[in-house]
Amino acid sequence: xxxxxxxxxxxxxxxxxxxxxxxxxxxxxxxxxxxxxxxxxxxxxxxxxxxxxxxxxxxxxxxxxxxxxxxxxxxxxxxxxxxxxxxxxxxxxxxxxxxxxxxxxxxxxxxxxxxxxxxxxxxxxxxxxxxxxxxxxxxxxxxxxxxxxxxxxxxxxxxxxxxxxxxxxxxxxxxxxxxxxxxxxxxxxxxxxxxxxxxxxxxxxxxxxxxxxxxxxxxxxxxxxxxxxxxxxxxxxxxxxx
Length: 242
What we know:
By secondary structure, the chain is of the alpha/beta class. About 35% of the residues lie in helices and about 30% in strands. Strand 9 (about 215-220) and strand 10 (about 225-230) form a beta hairpin.
């Protein structure tokens, strides 16, 4: 028996009113993503990548078609159920880090657990474990302005995985990083995918990210132009694969 996919979209359409007509952001996108994948939605700016991630993450709803995520139909969720899906099961990584500047690294990573109402001791255990995974346990008391760009993105990764989500959505996660830091954070995500079994789905046009993917889904003008299983061109240490 084939396992139910973690994500399944059928004839997904998203349009936005522009002037006297509609801008088509997604054009009948049908995809299935299984648990444990390390996949990316790739394509040029304006191809619909971020729109697709926003719908999968229940931050937006389709105009037509369906999006089933972790057994939930996104288009039928009210605000409360959509928030519950995000809070419990989906982690987000953004290109701008989105760390709260007045809080410490520990407090930034802890925030998703506060939304789940976990007791303080359990929150501390999970936060320190998440920071240990990305090599930043010693920076728990630091504030974001004391971190490098690479460290800030690793904190964002910790925040995304601290609640042990089934799915992490990463929208252009290396856009504000140099090459060395990009490879470092991508190496971290590959390792977490392997160790935790967390599904990672990227939106990117960065060739560095694309080099780590095991599945590449290309969008052009909102439609799927290609869907390929690929061999990563970079190993976990960031070097070119043999």
